[in-house]
Description:
The chain is mainly α.
Amino acid sequence: xxxxxxHQGTAMNRQRSSQLTSGMAHHRASCGQRxxxxxxxxxxxxxxxxxxxxxxxxxxxxxxxxxxxxxxxxTDQTVQATAEGLRWLARRxxxxxxxxxxxxxxxxxxxxxxxxxxxxxxxxxxxxxxxSETINRTVEFLLSCSQKNGYLVDSDSxxxxxxxxxxxxxxxxxxxxxxxxxxxxxxxxxxAVDLIIATQNSEGGWRYNPVPQEADVSVxxxxxxxxxxARNAGISVPKEVVxxxxxxxxxxxxxxxxxxxxxFDPAESRLARSAAAVVALYSAGVSDDPVVQNGLNxxxxxxxxxxxxxxxxxxxxxxxxxxxxxxDNRWRICFPILRDELLSQxxxxxxxxxxxxxxxxxxxxxxxxxIPYDVLPIFER
Length: 381
């Protein structure tokens, strides 16, 4: 891969910073609308049993330096790769707002949501930015997939685990809530959240389908992230739902800090699900608990060894978020490893995954590489 010319990359950094400044202003305005809406709701219905997911100032601890250039550890090559990846991904969007050429293979709701999140991370929002139209088409597609019971699913695609797609789609819609004038977004978002709440099983988790039966840590993480994003947007989430999910995730931890797939499975830890579990616990307000810290230490060690390629892009997506939440030397260790490896895996202007699809791989890589910009509320430290 050809190295970018230094002065061109620096110019990209300045352009990127300008775009992000504009995008973050829109995000902050949206957050203000959300807070006002939440205040009114609380005054009207006085619900006292909601989960107080922690909220922080929008750019607290942001690594962006005083000159307005790219955040620390975001190199010129990273900026160029991100810009090229976003352009490639935008070209892969269909007219209906979904992504990719092989709808049979792709879980189009989940992949569309991940692509939308990647564009939001770039600083674009529905009303402004280079990818505003792309984001709006994504919103349109996901809302068109909303069923009467709140289920976000595309009947035209074959999906192994549709609750993954539902979780990612709910999270994306919650992130854009308040940024778009669409009247049906709020209603369909609430129904999507209600479906998650209604399908939690007796152990506190979720699995592939919207029925309260089995559960696994991976699908559970996806629903917890959706609930946290919804709570940030002012949607009611009962405290006990989150508490039970946290307890379920904790029950999957192995003695070495990593996580197994289900509580009763063999004690085999893997990087991908362990990073995801750590992120979900952080998102639920659990940060200083030894379960989280031991889990994060496991993630860091596995990243340093670089010997776990299972669900590669899923692992990078969550490992970047987990390390970002650490606020310590573990971020400084992890992100350069993640960054350099992802850059080395590029296939021209994007990333490839023969199983899940190139749109999936590219979206997850782009989110991981853009985490340091600290744009979205769901990824705030």
